[in-house]
């Protein structure tokens, strides 16, 4: 438990691990019940996390003397890289903002984690200007591309259905071109957060395939306005029709797009192809590589921006 400073006349805040008994206080802070369940997990949830290999550490700020919870955050270790952690549910009570409590929950909270936390990141809703600004004040960078999600059926209506796309199965020889699209979709900040990524492991699989799922490449007609320069497998020349790929992992579907090739029409046509392969209209799919220009007219797409700090030890040492 660590005390934090504050404005004169304000009670100090103590940074400590969240406990199951804190659930009611977490809800009073403004978190909905399902988030309180995550921050104050019951034994069954903790067991499930342990079986899945999930390492989650919830932290809160408690007002000294009153015991009131005035802030919360949760850290989750990445399965890709043990030195990279995501944080979320970062909240400070409105009456205690601009006192440094948010920063101290991150800095002091990291000291409650295993050593060698080298990289830290979070996702923020695109229209949450206050949270984006708070991240930037602490030294976080924003990703160049946006992430999104939308119901599949509605996504088919956001742009024209022609010219049609084709989804073609791919094999191990296509991994380099998929990785090229992946790096463009995810952006350079993501690659700095996960420096171990390469064509053999970027989708979480092993050399020669995925753990689960089918990958297809979205190809359009030669000369289309949204075409890219990603090379096709087995050739040394670029194929201007490779604009992205679709990943199936069980029922989950994610579209990875080259941001230079992505617009409303591309997303609508890709969604039509996914539906043609049996996906439900009400399925919410993930979208990666969205250009910021889409935020001008997002329609049904919920947008988020990646906020990352690839050099935590340099910025927050000591």
How would you concisely characterize the structure shown here?
The protein has 318 residues and is an alpha+beta fold. The protein has helices at residues 23-28, 33-39, 43-52, 101-110, 129-137, 152-155, 175-186, 188-193, 264-276, 312-315, and strands spanning 2-4, 13-17, 56-63, 69-77, 84-92, 119-125, 141-151, 166-169, 214-219, 242-249, 252-257, 284-290, 302-309. Strands 1-2-3-4-5-6-13-7-12-11-10-9-8 form a 13-stranded mixed sheet, with helices on both faces.
Structure description:
The protein is elongated, with a radius of gyration of 22 Å. Helices cover 25% and strands 29% of the residues. The protein has 318 residues and is of the alpha+beta class. Strands 1-2-3-4-5-6-13-7-12-11-10-9-8 form a 13-stranded mixed β-sheet, sandwiched between helices. The protein has two domains: 2-117, 3-Layer(aba) Sandwich (Aminopeptidase), CATH 3.40.630.30; 147-306, Aminopeptidase (3-Layer(aba) Sandwich).
Count of individual domains:
2
Structural class: alpha+beta
How is the CATH topology of the largest domain named? Answer: Aminopeptidase
Poorly predicted runs = 206-214, 220-240
Taking the alpha carbons of the first and last residues, their distance comes to 17 Å
Helicity, in percent? 25-40%
Describe the main β-sheet briefly: 13 strands, mixed
Helix-strand string? EEHHHEEEHEHEHEHHEEEHEEH
* Corresponding CATH architecture of the largest domain: 3-Layer(aba) Sandwich
């Amino acid at each position: 438990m660590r005390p934090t400073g504050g404005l004169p006349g304000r009670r100090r805040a103590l940074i400590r691990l969240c406990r199951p008994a804190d659930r009611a206080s977490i809800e009073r802070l403004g978190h909905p019940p399902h988030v309180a369940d995550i921050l104050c997990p019951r034994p069954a949830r903790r067991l499930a996390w342990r079986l899945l290999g999930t390492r989650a550490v919830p932290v809160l700020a408690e007002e000294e003397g009153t015991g009131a919870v005035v802030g919360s955050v949760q850290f989750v270790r990445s399965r890709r890289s043990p030195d990279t952690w995501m944080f979320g549910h970062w909240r400070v009570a409105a009456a205690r903002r601009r006192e440094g409590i948010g920063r101290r929950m991150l800095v002091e909270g990291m000291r409650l984690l295993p050593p060698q936390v080298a990289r830290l990141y979070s996702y923020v809703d695109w229209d949450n200007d206050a949270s984006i600004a708070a991240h930037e004040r602490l030294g976080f960078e924003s990703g160049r591309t946006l992430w999104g999600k939308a119901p599949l059926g509605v996504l088919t209506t956001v742009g024209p259905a022609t010219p049609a796309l084709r989804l073609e199965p791919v094999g191990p020889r296509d991994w380099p071109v998929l990785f090229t699209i992946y790096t463009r979709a995810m952006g350079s900040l993501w690659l700095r957060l996960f420096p171990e990524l390469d064509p053999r492991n970027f989708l979480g699989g092993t050399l020669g395939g995925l753990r689960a799922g089918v990958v297809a490449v979205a190809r359009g007609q030669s000369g289309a306005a949204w075409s890219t320069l990603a090379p096709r497998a087995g050739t040394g020349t670029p194929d201007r029709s490779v604009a992205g790929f679709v990943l199936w992992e069980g029922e989950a579907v994610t579209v990875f797009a080259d941001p230079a090739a992505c617009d409303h029409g591309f997303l609508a046509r890709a969604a039509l192809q996914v539906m043609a392969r049996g996906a439900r209209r009400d399925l919410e799919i993930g979208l990666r590589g969205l250009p910021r220009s889409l935020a001008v007219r997002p329609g049904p797409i919920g947008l988020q921006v990646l906020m990352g700090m690839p050099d935590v030890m340099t910025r927050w040492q000591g």
